[in-house]
Here is the input.
Amino acid sequence: MIIGFNHDYYLRFDNKRTILASNPEAVQEKGLSDWISRIHPIYSMLFALLSKPQKKEDAESKIADFFGISFENSKKIIDRFLYKKGVIIGKYGDQMSYFPENIIRIYDQQDEPEILFGEKSDTKVYKPSEFIFSEVDLESRRMMKCPHGLVFVVTTVCATQCIYCYADKSLNCNRFLDLREIERVLREARILGIREIQMIGGEFFLHPQWYEILFIARELGFTIPLISTKLPLSEVELIKFKEFNIRLQFSLDSVDPNVLSNILKVNQSYTRQILTSIRMADKLGLKYKVATVLTRETANCKNLSELYHELEGLENLNVWSIRLVFRSLYSSYRFEDIRVQKRQYDNLYNWYNGIKEINNIYIDFPENYRTNYKYAEGGSENFKGARCSANMSHMVILPDGKVTICEQLYWNPRFIIGNIHESSIDKIWNTPKALLLSRWQKKDIQEQSNCSKCSVYETCRDFSNKCYVNTIRAYGNDNWDYPDPRCSQAPPYINDI
Here is the structure.
């Protein structure tokens, strides 16, 4: 039997622990579930010994010799990782580590000779010496050495002028992140062991060197999960994009030219052009989805029925994602004038329930009119929804090289933690300001914020699941240190979000 570490996952030493995460390529190509956990470095040494597939009895002997344990105990360790179903829990001393099923796997000698004989260039062969440790910390959520992922805002230039625009254009930063800087940062990220990257805008395809950006990222071994666009793309552009096997998201809020002219400020030919691009992407066999943002003007059954009629015949459409507009920090339009009303949502929900069982498109429709707020007791650990990655696992590079903690905060000076033109990724991640934001002291919170007198503040802060964007939406920029709107201690909103 040939066994080895499962390279659908990867290891990255993080000073006082090892990060075990799913390989983005495996997530995209094989449908592997996202996984990330903090594990004791002793386990990463074990996996390092198995990073090249080998006979099971050889692996058992190697592990027994390295750790100074009996052959029988070595066999028990390997068998547990090989055969246990579901999440595997490992205990070393008083530290608990968590692993996905099949983290050590059985290899098929006939099917995968390029892996077995070390001929697959992107198969990492780890060494136990990479994971030498003096202290262990599996509790701290924030990445220690460097971020887990990078988000590149390659430009804030757009193809449309959406009335619900979520981008900060107040600084008129109509520039493009330099290709040489992108390549330099990507090479640095690769050395640091960062695997997750995103490329966003603005409009990504308006960057004059978008193809070169994707080419360099691919050559350096990065997998980009998704590129979103509102730009009508030509057949030539779609063919070039298809080379990279990246999922494409088309934003389409209506198929009525007059409606799109009103909400996107585009000309009458835009609707025909964007629909032509979607049909061409389908014909070329691209992986793609369609995203729709509903405002008061578009939140009606007629609009969704017309969209559905255009989409239902497409063979390669992956998902149609429908969302309700939310308050922007930057739009010049009053949110109260464009938000979807409750009666509109109820009508649309009935339409959705009537069509979801008979359609051939997977429709991702909001199950609630409004996100539940002011419900969570006991701190941010109990907030529903995806965990916030801002300044915990990810950082964002803006078109001028400044680095912020969240792509929706843009150039808000309170959250700028560095500049890639002046410093390296790991140094920016560990600047005094970045560290201060991650452990904001209770004594520094303004007195009128309920956080200043909360008995679980430190626990809530350390879990760090607060959304600064939603807090600022609800209470304004000066009240950024108010409770997250999901918290039961959140005061009445100044702004409806």
